[in-house]
Amino acid sequence: MIKLSQRAERLAPSATLAMAAKANKMRKDGIDVISFATGEPDFDTPENIRNTGMQAIDEGFTRYTPSAGIPELRNSIARKLKKDNDLSYNNDEIVVTCGAKQAIYNALQVLVDAGDEVLIPAPYWVSYPEQVKLADGTPVIIPTDVNSSFKINPEIVEKHLTKNTKVIILNSPSNPTGSAYTPDELASLGEFLVKHKITIISDEIYEKLVYGDFFQKSIATACPGARDSTIVINGVSKAYAMTGWRMGYAAGPRNVISKMASLVGQQNSGIPAFVQLACIEALEGPQVEIERMKAEFKS
């Protein structure tokens, strides 16, 4: 038998995908089951986005692109971040990845060394701890409960700090709890993390799935001082019903982003060219379908 690496030996399969596969099998067996496994909108990708992708294929836009993403897409992401989040990034401070999952994985790979601790508020998306372990880091779970609205604050975080604490993964709005931080909560948390020199990976993939008068802010916006120590993670999967298109991105300090882009180049060379044009249409095209999906999802 071929001997596996220690990394492979401790690698666990994706619990999310395993649950989804089990639900699909149950359906095939005739069982009426509702799956809460994958975070997937119950809508088709809007027609204008699909058409843009198909047109790009028809026009032969199917070759290699820069690993970090075509400049046009990174510029589109920069405009989105400025318009929606009041965050200013240059083209070379943005990297396009194969979904937000790869963005988080690559961020951890370039930030974490063996022995470094990564704080993860619980409940959490199940891939966070496994990705930390793959970076040879140690996940440190911060429990929360309904009394705190499943949110952390500086006092809670301080109890889990050690000399090895390097990174925190903050997910707002949260999967799976649905909790979201107010600007004041983010500002307070950001100031504390900056003071303790803790790098923030801010997973904002669910930012548009908020309702009522709540407005989602990035921690890098709510706490301007945290901007240079934050890696903002986002993508098109949730807001635009594009889970299978696999486009995520990260924005942050140039030295981190450049290494993440190099890692993409060694992993998969980048996402398909035609997908990138479709994503520009998603970000900059008509948003009517997105608002309709959001309204129907709410009801």
Explain the overall architecture.
- It is a single chain.
- The protein is of the alpha/beta class and 299 residues long.
- It contains twelve helices and seven strands.
- It has helices spanning 6-9, 15-28, 47-58, 71-85, 99-111, 127-134, 154-158, 183-195, 219-222, 254-267, 273-284, 288-298; strands spanning 94-97, 117-122, 138-143, 165-171, 199-203, 230-235, 248-251.
- The protein has a seven-stranded mixed beta sheet, sandwiched between helices.
- Strand 4 (165-171), helix 8 (183-195) and strand 5 form a beta-alpha-beta unit.
- Helix 5 crosses helix 10.
- The longest helix is centred in the N-terminal third of the chain and has 15 residues, at 71-85.
- It is globular, with a radius of gyration of 19 Å.
Overall geometric form: globular
Helix content: 40-55%
SSE order, one letter for each helix or strand: HHHHEHEHEHEHEHEEHHH
Radius of gyration: 19 Å
> Can you count the helices?
12
Distance between the termini: 54 Å
- Our estimate of the beta-strand percent is 5-15%
DSSP strand tally = 7
Please mark out the parts with pLDDT under 50 across 5 or more consecutive residues, or reply none. none
Q: Biggest sheet, in brief?
A: 7 strands, mixed
Structural class label: alpha/beta
The average pLDDT value, as a whole number, equals 94
Strand order in the sheet with the most strands: 1-7-6-5-4-2-3
Which oligomeric state applies? Answer: single chain
Question: What would the keywords be for this entry?
Answer:
single chain, 299 residues, alpha/beta
